[in-house]
Amino acid sequence: MNVNEYHIESDINKELDKLIALLLQKEEIIAFQKAESKVEESKWVQDTIEQIKNKQRDLVNFEYYEKPEAYKKTLDELNALNKAIDENITVQQYRASLVEANEVVQFLFKQIQTEVDSITD
Q1: Which of 35, 74, 86, 114 has a C-alpha 20 to 30 A away from that of 51?
Q2: Domain range enclosing 26
Q3: pLDDT in tens, the chain (121 residues)
Q4: Can you tell me the distance from the alpha carbon of 26 to that of 106, in angstroms, rounded to the nearest whole number?
Q5: d(C-alpha 54, C-alpha 67), whole Å
Q6: How many CB atoms neighbour CB 63 within 10 A?
Q7: Which is it for the CA torsion 26, 117, 120, 9, positive or negative?
Q8: Which residues contact 74 (CB under 8 A, 6 or more apart)?
Q9: What is the pTM assigned to this prediction?
Q10: At 75, which CATH number?
Q11: DSSP assignments along the chain, one per residue
Q12: Residue 56: how many other CB atoms lie within 10 Å
């Protein structure tokens, strides 16, 4: 990498840092970060996620060792855990904010792509 390339890359990184700082000020991103913190801080949510992971591992084992009754029972338990987590208001808020934040980021990427495409045409 020559000095000129390093300078260009350095400039791009500086501008990227500015863009990220602006993005972090967007209402949708702030809402997502708050919702994410609530999910991470929720003992119930974290415990339920861990139970779901354990049930999924159990399902694989029961299927491999051909234990259909244990498989069915565990599948029912897993479905109940998934339903409980899907109905949790904290998780619902997190998922909704994730969709909104993703839309903002996707819009930004599309704008960047459009600009890059117009330069290279």
Answers
A1: 35
A2: 3-120
A3: 666 676 778 888 999 999 999 999 999 999 999 999 999 999 999 999 999 999 999 999 999 999 999 999 999 999 999 999 999 999 999 999 999 999 999 999 999 999 989 988 7
A4: 14
A5: 17
A6: 14
A7: positive
A8: 55, 58, 59, 62
A9: 0.81
A10: 1.20.1500.10
A11: --HHHHHHHHHHHHHHHHHHHHHTTSHHHHHHHHHHHHHHH-HHHHHHHHHHHHHHHHHHHHHHTT-HHHHHHHHHHHHHHHHHHHH-HHHHHHHHHHHHHHHHHHHHHHHHHHHHHHHH-
A12: 13
Q: Which amino acid is at 8?
A: I
Task: Count CB atoms within 10 A of the CB of residue 87.
Answer: 9
Number of domains in the chain: 1
Work out the angle at residue 90's Cα, subtended by the Cα atoms of residues 40 and 57, and round it to the nearest 5 degrees: 60
- Alpha-carbon gap, residue 83 to 42, rounded angstroms: 17
Q: Which two tokens stand for residue 64?
A: 């491999």
Amino acid residing at 105:
V
Answer whether 100's CB lies under 8 Å from 30's CB. Answer: no
Q: Identify the residue whose tokens are 């980021």.
A: 105
Report how far residue 59's alpha carbon sits from residue 55's, in angstroms, rounded to the nearest whole number.
Answer: 6
Residue type for position 71 = Y
